Amino acid sequence: MGDENIRGEIIRGPIPDAEDCAGCPLAIDGKPDGPVRGIGPQHPKFIIIAEGPGVNEKRQGLPLLGKGGQILGKALMSSNVKREEVWLGQTTLCLPPRETKDDVIRQAANHCRKRLIKEIDTLGPDPPILAVGKHAASALIQKDFKITDLAGTFHTISLEDIPFTKDVIPTIHPAAMLRSNDNSGAHTSDLLFWFLQYDTAKINGLAAGKAQPFSDDVDFETTNSTRAHQLVADILKESLSNGWLACDLETRGITSGTCTKCLNCHGHSALEATFAQITAIGLATEERGISVAWDALKPETKYLLQVAFANKDRSWVFHNRGYDEVVLESNGFPIAGRIDCTLYMHHNVFPGLPHKLQRVGSQFMLLRPWKSEYKDGIHSIEELLRYNCLMAGVPVILADGSTRPIEDLVNQKYAGEVLSWNCATNQIEPKRVVNWLRKRVVNQLWWQIRTEVDDGSRTRGLIVTPEHEVFTRRGSIRADTVVVGDEIATEEVLFTQQQQQAIVGTLLGDSVLDVSRVFRQQGNMGEAKTASLHGGHAIPSGLTQFKISMLGKNVYPGVISVGGPKVICGTATTAADFQKFHSAKLRQLRVLGDLVYDENWKRRITTAALDFMGPVGLAWWFMDDGGKESGGRCITIATHGFPREDVERAAQWLTARFGSVSVRKNNSLGFSAAATRTFATTISPFLPEVARYKLPANSVVVPFQSIASNQSEPYYVCITSSAAYIPKQETAGQRLQAEWQYCLTVEDNSNFFTLFGLVANCRDTLVTARLKKPLEALIIKRDATKTYEMDMRKCAAAKDMQITGVPVNLERNQTFREYFEPKVEKAKAALMARIQDPIFKENFKQLITLEQAKVTRKADADQFGLRQAKRLTELDKKWAKLEGEGEELFNLNSTPQLVAYLKACGVNLTVLTKKGKLSTKKDVLEQLVAHPAVAELLEFRANQTLLNTFVLPIPTKIDLTGRIHPIWSPNKISGRWGSSPNWQNATKGKTVFKKFEAWLAQMRLWQQGGADPGIPNLRWQCVAPSGYTMVGSDFKQIDARVIALLTNDEWLCNAFNTGIDIHSYFAGEIFPEFLTLDGKDPTQAKRKKDLRDITKRAEYGYFYGAVIVTVWKSIMKEGYNVPISTINKLFKTFETKMPSVIRYYMNLLRATVESGKVSSFLLGRAQYFPLGDAASDPTVIKNFVCQAGAADVADTGIIAVHEILKQRGLGETILQGHDAGTWLVKENDAQEVKSIILEHMAQVHTLNGVTMRFDVDVDIGSDWAST
Question: From CA 420, how far away is CA 848, in angstroms rounded?
């Protein structure tokens, strides 16, 4: 049978009902505007739900036909899936206008939701859903999020009115791959196509039954050191069979004042690996994993780990070894064996994609977004480790208030909502179950907690593992530390104090408490542990709705009794329709009942109730049973049903507080005129308008004050028993029940309610272990072994460099601070001075408020002019206050204010951000540097950046040995290194002085009014300690030599082979004066250096494929005043002298377009173009072959030297700067190290018959700058 017969005929999806379109922002006159309905076979392989139609889709009436749809078609083809085999649907069916905001799209999606659910329902329970784009994913998962956080992850959802769950995988919209300014974390947008391919393959595998959700098999331990030791010992033993083990660490930073490693520590974040403290360690094989709290490890367990890490025959796998390895070694656990890293594996086979573990793991596996669900810093390590902790039989409370046993929810993978507590907002709210966890543990220990409200139907109470945490008044604590008298949070929403007072008041009035029928039948209502509130009022009075609105989530509307002719107390009358209300059976209501009900469950007016009620309770009592006496001057409260003694007690209590109150013959309370006035004023704030008719006309009343609360804090009950629990194990079934643990993962809040209280729930290492094999296979398939092995060697060097650190001289650092701070303040003052000009100031104000008025706030006028006038008034007040306090009027870090400032200066800003706002980024302003205001701003920013990056932070980061510890990351797409802070870009300054001492002398003169010495070489701060020196190496013209080797250009190769300095050669060709300048004269030497530098910059711009105007602007921003015609002349000279360069690039572009890949010449480091659009930006290709080739050469040499020096103990690598390295060595070893560098760093490479030397310069000096 053909596939088309299996799939069924092609059908179209429904359109929304008229009632759903009413109010939709995309509808026209309440009707859909050219809806593009879903289409596909009756029985599709899977369902694709996109965001909405585009112009092409609306024109042809079919979804996903535009460029994004074509990219999606490519992804389907890569999984051998035809478009005709899948259902193509959309969140909304109508074309939104251009630039429609997200909230409008969400609103439209809500109107279209019923139609979407009906469409999905029609297609049956089997086909899973690929949700394409943020809006489609949000509409299905019903959660607002960044698509980059959840793309590729696996979800099981429940939809309204559908009796089955659906599996969903969100993916990035193909349109994102067409937008160069929206790369969602990728190096270039087209690389995201890889993710779309894998997500399509996963959904296809899921539909075919070939893919299964990720299975967790992890043992956790947070406190039991004996069990933690056994877990570690067992998994170390198990891993011997395959020789490797995955490892992951959880860490925390060091707060200010607690660091013992630094001189003037302001604290360290957990990202500073040399200072990070381990809080947990995870170990995993492919089959299972463990995770244990570090504090739970005995000394002998840590020794066991030390021995394992020191075993050269054992291999380890990390995700981001550059961090974990540094943490381990800094804490005394160096690793001797081979180390692999799934992050770098992924980097080598998918260069340019995001490499975070959740994104990498979800690329290959059906994974819940566990990283997004547990944000860093939100949960303690105990919460992260908490897992599989409840015993079968514990009832979990669902969103509708019903209960189901925990094991049923887990075994059936219930994906609906349960009650949960949002600790941040203090709200009890429904939250979806997103994962189901169970584990069998023989001889499992259990802990039982019972409360004061446990009744005969639930005598077992809450049964959990001892280490499991429960929420109490003391916070979240271990179950086995709970003591009698603690209070545990329950699913009940706590009535506020005022709401409790109102309830007591209405119980004395028209409402009653009811208890379970069992207790009523037995006549022992007082023995009940819960009670429900019941009442009602005539609908016209509005009191039922009022009470429901005031009492919140615990109280609900009840049945309506239809009114009509009735006889009440022998009198014929017409009764209005009657609306009842009620609550669930609540523990706290039963507690309040003790104030009103006696042991026989009869209502009484007690002193305790009167004392408790306050003005709120009195108002509700009066609202129910109060009224005016004849004449209307005094009030009365009907208390006929209470014993006389109670009424007399109430009269005495009221008289003492308000004035004379007496008991009438009919057993009601009568207030005197004076008491009426006082009582009316007291209760009026809490008496609604619909009940104020009961007060005398002359009463002094105050505005109404609502007692409704947005908070829904849990109600706590007292714990009466907390002890170890031994379940019955007489039968096989009982033994099984005693061995199985169950838990749920609940979105966002990570907790859920049981009938007995609130409990919490809780894969890095296991994911890492299961990524190893597929990534290793791809390394081989993509011929990336050489680059991956080089990256592993670079990681080892980066670890050594970070731990070793860089020695810094604090005196020089303080000198730089003395130089930069006044320059920054002076530049800032110059910028601020313009605002003092009245004309400029007024123009500036108009421009600021013009932008502000474009945003409409609440209570704003519709007219734009009125809104701007309002903003002007607000700004005048703000500036007047700032001027009075001596503060600055405008914030240089505020982009809207900066835009207005530059516009007021006459700067023509035109470049927009992706959000449509004018951009003030550095690269944008550099194109406008000819304007004085822009030049001043850039100078201010440059000095501020140098001060804040390379000067001010150093004293707070320097350790007791006088060193800082930059974080080195050798994972750039080209193979280059990065660092934080970015020491590779520590400026060499703009000064004529070669030595710090000479610069310092001039700086001191500058402080006294002399000439500015120029921006210092910030590398002067890095000074070798006594007895040591620095040895630095730098490749000679490495980029140009790579170009010569690649292009086989005759002139360029000859220049290098004969020792010609090509920068000086071309400078002499273009600038005749260059050849006559005297290098010994300081002024002429600087001019000669400047001309060579201008030529060098233009030359590399030519090599990298930059256009002339871009090269000219980049040279101008460096302060060189060169006409563009000079750069044009240089480019023509390059083309004449080096014609093979152009030919090579043309051939390279053609070959890259054909293969979709470009590689470096030495190690084969690759950049890919998965959408086949390499020709769209040839500069990327030109840059890559040069940069990656140079990086390969530099890495080969620097890493070789590092490994030799480490092996011989001759020196430490401390700095790396693209093609340069710096080593700290003993003074006596400096010459030997220099010889090693010259021998092993310099290289000779041959390509296509062309041989090129890559020579290095080596210098020895006391500081970094001199090397």
Answer: 45
DSSP H or E stretch at residue 1036: none
Are the CB atoms for 986 and 1015 separated by under 8 Å? no
C-alpha–C-alpha distance, residues 317 and 248, integer Å:
9
Give the residue carrying structure tokens 């080596």. 1258
**Could you tell me how many residues make up the chain?**
1267
Per-residue pLDDT tens digits for 5-15: 577 889 999 98
What single-letter DSSP state applies at residue 339? E
Cα(1262)–Cα(239) distance, rounded to whole angstroms?
A: 49
Q: H-type helices in 905-931, by residue range?
A: 922-926
Pairing of strands 714-725, 487-493: antiparallel
| 80's tokens | 């051998």
Report which residue type is found at 1085: A
pLDDT digits (tens, 9 = 90+) for 511-543: 999 887 767 777 778 778 888 999 999 988 899
Let me know: does 1252 contact 1044? Beta carbons within 8 Å. yes
Mean pLDDT, range 615-630, rounded to an integer: 94
Q: Does residue 768 carry a pLDDT above 50?
A: yes
**Nearest-5° angle of CA 1204, CA 1207, CA 1212?**
75
Q: In what order do the strands lie in the sheet with 47-50?
A: 10-12, 39-41, 87-90, 47-50, 129-132, 165-171, 155-158
Structure tokens at 715: 């109600």
Is the C-alpha dihedral spanning 19, 25, 27, 33 positive or negative? negative
Distances (CA, A) of 810 to 306, 457, 952, 1266: 36, 72, 11, 18
- DSSP string spanning 263-324? SS---B-TT-TTT-EEEEEEEE-SS-EEEEEGGG--HHHHHHHHHHHH-TT-EEEESSHHHH
Residue 357 · residue 768 · CB < 8 Å: yes
Give 553's contacts (C-beta < 8 A, 6+ positions apart): 428, 493, 712
Cβ 1125 vs Cβ 1114: under 8 Å: no
Of the candidates 322, 306, 315, the residue with the CA atom closest to the CA atom of residue 337: 315
How many alpha carbons lie under 13 Å from residue 254 in its C-beta half-sphere? 20
CB 247 within 8 A of CB 338: no
Residue 1210 has pLDDT above 80, yes or no: yes
Strands 578-583 and 626-628: unpaired
Which among 83, 199, 147, 70 has a CA at the least distance from the CA of 1173? Answer: 70
Phi, psi angle pair for 130, to nearest 5°: -100, 110
The overall average pLDDT reported for the chain is 86
pLDDT category of residue 437 using cuts at 50, 70 and 90: confident
Specify the pLDDT at position 20: 87
Q: How confident is the model at residue 508 (pLDDT cuts 50, 70, 90)?
A: very high
Q: What is the pLDDT of residue 385?
A: 35
- Please say whether the dihedral angle defined by the alpha carbons of residues 567, 569, 574 and 576, taken in this order, is positive or negative: negative
Q: What is the dihedral of CA 426, 430, 431, 437, to 10 degrees?
A: 110
Average pLDDT over residues 969-990: 85
Whole-angstrom Cα distance, residue 415 to residue 109? Answer: 22
DSSP 584: -
Question: Hey, what amino acid is at 844?
Answer: F
Q: Which of 155-159, 230-234, 468-472: highest mean pLDDT?
A: 230-234
Mean pLDDT, to the nearest integer, of 1117-1141? 89
In terms of DSSP bridges, do strands 155-158 and 218-221 run parallel, antiparallel, or are they unpaired? unpaired
Is 1027 exposed, middle or buried (CB count within 10 Å of its CB: 0-12, 13-18, 19+)? Answer: exposed
Rounded distance, CA 985 to CA 980, Å? Answer: 10
Q: Which residue from 333, 311, 321, 336 is spatially nearest to 239, judged by alpha carbons?
A: 311
Rounded Cα distance between 746 and 432, Å, is 6
